[in-house]
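User: Predict the complex with alpha-D-glucopyranose.
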Amino acid sequence: MNRRRHVWWLGLVTAVAGVLPACGRADPHVLTFAGSAVGREAEIIRRQLERFQAANPGVTVELRPTPDAADQRHQLYVQWLNARAPDPDVLQIDVVWTPEFAAAGWILNLDPFGPATEEFFPAAIDANRWNRSLYALPWFIDVGMLYWRTDLMSEAPRDLEALGRQAIRARDHAGVPYGFVWQGARYEGLVTVFLEHLGAYGGQILDADGRVVVDSGAGVKALTYMRDAIDVDRFVPPAVLTWQEEQVRFAFQDGQAAFMRNWPYAYALLEESPDSRVAGRFAVAPMPAAEGGVGTAALGGSELAINAYSGDPATAYLLIDYLLGEEQMLERARLIGQYPSRPAMFDTPALADALPVRRDDARRVIERAVPRPVTPVYSQLSEILQVALHRALTQQQEPDAALREAATAMQALLQRVRLAPSGS
Ligand code: GLC
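Assistant: Here is the predicted structure with alpha-D-glucopyranose placed in the model:
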């Protein structure tokens, strides 16, 4: 934050919350923070909250851990926020939830706090705007990456066809039972894996005008590739159809797979877990392309937002501002491999030391990452798509029919809530 904003902002805190110890007010400020406890995230946030409290005497922050699975966390937040409960004051939210929570009036417009939006990746800021106002700030950026085994092959696959060939070779010659593992359970993670295959073939979920185009030729090719790969004789194990991030990581960490699609968080765990069988034997690369498309990473990540019913928004923003500080982001990068949301940090040697991948490669993947549709009905669109994708992958329906039905239902939903582009 620049100095002028900082001064303005401290003034606001003093006036609204009386939080500074100097003003002698006795009322304690108790904030609640709801966030993820996946991997080592709980340990890090505890440590950072302690530092924040030490720097802000008079403020106490309680941590509320939330479920690992994105969809379950979403459900819990909807229950809390819909009940207009004043806590949690600060929420770690998924990048795809901001418009929904903003349109429902559940999270605060952050513009009055004067955040330095230009200091963050523009795509992440855009995903946090609704009706031109900003409702959350990006905390860390997730991008889908291809993890590959350096002891089984000498280079990452050039395209999806080569990936299949290399995976089969690893199974036949090196005895690695699973070729390629990804998040195939019926939940949000599956949509991100599909988005990456879709981009690889040149497709999109919505086009630039907001029309549903997920059932295009590219969409059908992408889903057919995914479905056909799933077979004990091919290179994606049927077990992925029930797996989320952590099950996928465990399979790769156990040395069972030649390739894995996952977020950056997995890197440090694979390298450092005492029971990892692949430490020092893997690398990451961008997800490969197929014919007609480009290598695509889904844009994911977590944002920080303030509950609209919080009794203490000024102190809540003080906490957000602290967690978004470079020092905190650097610590997250160093300990859990998460990518900072501040592009300027990618020019610093400190980040080069902290990140396990080359910072320029990371920045390039982030800058080209593809967002999921930015709309308040994203969760409903995603739900429709998840059902269709899973039906096709479990061979209950052909990919073209599944996508056609999903597209019709998605279009009908957008029309019902008057978010469909005119003429569609
Ligand atoms: C990660 C991403 C998030 C995504 C989720 C899907 O948490 O950061 O954006 O929705 O995975 O499982």
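The pocket of alpha-D-glucopyranose is lined by residues 70, 94-96, 142, 188-189, 192, 263, 300-302 (CB under 6 Å).
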